[in-house]
Amino acid sequence: MQWTLVIPLKPLPQAKSRLADTAGDGVRPGLALAFAQDTVAAALACPAVADVAVVTDDELAARELAALGARIVPDVPRSGLNAALAYGTAVVREIRPGTPVAALNADLPALRPAELSRVLAAASEFPRAFLADAAALGTTLLAAAGDHALRPAFGLDSRVRHRASGARELGLTGVDSVRQDVDTGADLRAALALGVGRRTAAVSAGLLIPGN
Questions:
Q1: For residue 190, is it within any domain?
Q2: Is the CB of residue 45 less than 8 Å from the CB of residue 106?
Q3: Quick check: is 211 in a domain?
Q4: Are 38 and 31 in contact, with CB atoms under 8 Å apart?
Q5: Which of 9, 18, 65, 107 has its CA 20 to 30 A from that of 154?
Q6: Which H or E element spans position 166?
Q7: What is the pLDDT of residue 212?
Q8: Could you tell me which of 186, 182, 184, 191 has the C-alpha nearest to residue 211?
Q9: Mean pLDDT across the stretch 18-44?
Q10: Contact status, residue 141 vs residue 119, Cβ threshold 8 Å
């Protein structure tokens, strides 16, 4: 089974505000872009992935991610993360009817294609499935078979909401790179310990990261 991934990305100047203790206003947009570039590059290198659609209105991000091979979908709803994911899913399923779709966070700079393949293979056994983040509170991936709606409920405590919606939680081990999203300096430190992509490594070099 091959999947289409839908990755939402807010305008870069608005991204990653919780990294303020680690990266200044002039650095955070570039860091957010690097996270997205490394995430998209790893996703496109995954053999289980046929296509990556990034939902964004940021012109720089759109240009850079399209250069990597991502399909760019304008954020027409402009009503937040879940609306962007629902719209992006509708767009890709209009192009490829019946395609299985997985929503993936844009801030997984340590993402490994082999680990993503394991998660998607496990998700394919259920109509809807999700993977909790490293903090066990949020969600980094939500998958839906081709004949099922995605029904995204990302945001605060999304693990509980996705479980309550009937999505199967994937209790996989050894897929830390798919769980480790980056919202805080401590998250970035954890991602760096796993080994991030080259763009995140370059932008984060020299930052004073909490815990170092």
A1: yes
A2: no
A3: no
A4: no
A5: 65
A6: none
A7: 46
A8: 186
A9: 91
A10: yes
Joined tokens for residue 64: 């850079």
Return the DSSP state at 114: H
- Whether the Cβ atoms of residue 111 and residue 178 lie closer than 8 Å to each other: yes
pLDDT of residue 11: 96
CATH of the domain at 182: 3.90.550.10
Both structure tokens of 86: 């629902």
- Alpha carbons 46 and 114: distance in angstroms, whole number: 7
Measured distance CA(121)–CA(2) in Å, rounded? 9
Specify the residue for token string 């490594």: 201
Q: How far apart are CA 144 and CA 102, in angstroms?
A: 6
Tens digits of per-residue pLDDT, 146-186?
999 999 999 999 999 999 999 999 999 999 999 999 999 99
Residue 54 lies in domain: 3-204
Fill in the amino acid letter for 37: Q
* CB-based burial, 144-153: b 16+ in 10 Å, e otherwise: bbeeeebbbb
Burial (CB < 10 A; 0-12, 13-18, 19+), residue 186, is middle
Question: Is 212 part of any domain?
Answer: no
**Tally: H helices and E strands in the chain:** 8, 7
Q: Would you say residue 206 has pLDDT above 80?
A: no
Residue 129 sits at the vertex; the CA angle it makes with 76 and 14, to the nearest 5 degrees, is 35
State residue 105 phi and psi, 5-degree precision. Answer: -65, 150
What Cα–Cα distance (Å) separates residue 6 from each residue in 50, 87, 150, 157, 210?
A: 11, 10, 11, 20, 31
Domain assignment of residue 63, yes or no: yes
Give the count of domains, the chain: 1
